[in-house]
């Protein structure tokens, strides 16, 4: 059964049968913003471009790599980004993730000790206005879900209203075992580069 992650919650990467997760996907799902039409008649849809990104650090918390829409694979190919979704679900929630970042912990460079995930609103659209924005962590591939391990809902939290950047959470290695810290904190940043600096300074 999936765990509903709460802010600050820490979980081990363990499946329901007790084995450890090796291939983890972090998926983001969101919809287009509905707006009233001219003179209040009907509605129109405004495309939303959310960008999921992954930041890799070594044991000394030095930045090693950033995987995002402009760099879809880590240097060791253990982290892969599905590609940039520029619109969100224009026709309503189809239940599928719009962007997925896959992490293969088995092939991830042993020098990596922190794997942070952040979300940015590319066009500066307020998180508080974006329908059904959510995060899920699961075993599988970008096109196949084997087992949902955890979910995190950002659409219904008032904490994100007025913000366009957030830190989703950080995978971290402790005594050779990977764990996950569900941070779920909005930031004051406007761009990915700023969010990377915030993670480095505050969330490792």
Write structural notes for this entry:
The chain has one helix and 14 strands. It is mostly beta strands. A six-stranded mixed beta sheet has the order 1-12-11-3-9-8, with no helix packed on it. The chain has a six-stranded antiparallel beta sheet with strand order 2-14-13-10-6-7, covered by helices on one side. β13 and β14 (177-187) form a beta hairpin. The chain is globular.
Helices and strands in order, then pairings?
Layout lengths: L2 E2 L4 E4 L10 E7 L3 E4 L6 E4 L3 E9 L4 E5 L11 E3 L17 E6 L7 E10 L12 E8 L2 E10 L11 E10 L2 E11 L4 H11 L2
Parallel strand pairs: 1-12
Antiparallel strand pairs: 2-14, 3-9, 3-11, 4-5, 6-7, 6-10, 8-9, 10-13, 11-12, 13-14
Task: Write a concise keyword list for the protein shown above.
6-stranded mixed sheet; TerD family protein; TerD; globular; Stress/Tellurium_Resist; 46% strand; tellurium resistance; mainly beta; 204 residues
Catalogue the unreliable spans: none
Mean pLDDT reading = 89
Structural class: mainly beta
Distance from N terminus to C terminus (CA atoms, Å) equals 28 Å
* N-to-C SSE string, H for helix and E for strand: EEEEEEEEEEEEEEH
Helical content class: under 10%
Fraction of residues in β-strands: over 45%
- Radius of gyration, whole Å: 17 Å
Quaternary organisation:
single chain
Q: What is the tally of helical segments? A: 1
Overall shape: it is: globular
